[in-house]
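seq as requested:
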Amino acid sequence: MAEAHRPGHDALQESVGNRIVRGVIFSITGLHLTHVTCGVIALIVVGVRYKGGRYKADDIEVLGLYWHFVDLVWMFVVPLVYLLNLAH
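struct tokens:
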């Protein structure tokens, strides 16, 4: 059984490299979660205001571009994190 998965394993004995990689993965994932959450809130706000006649279709298109940018970035982040993890 790998030492990292052993019951009672002390996290302080983990190598510094593994802790850094784990921190980078959680940071990138958390940053992505923040962007997705902001995007969902923006979609709801713009959708409600569009329905009320305050926004135009161009506003929804700009928001759609932001949403797809977040998707596109994530498609490159996942393989990068996977490849960083293979180095250890």
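The mean pLDDT is 78.
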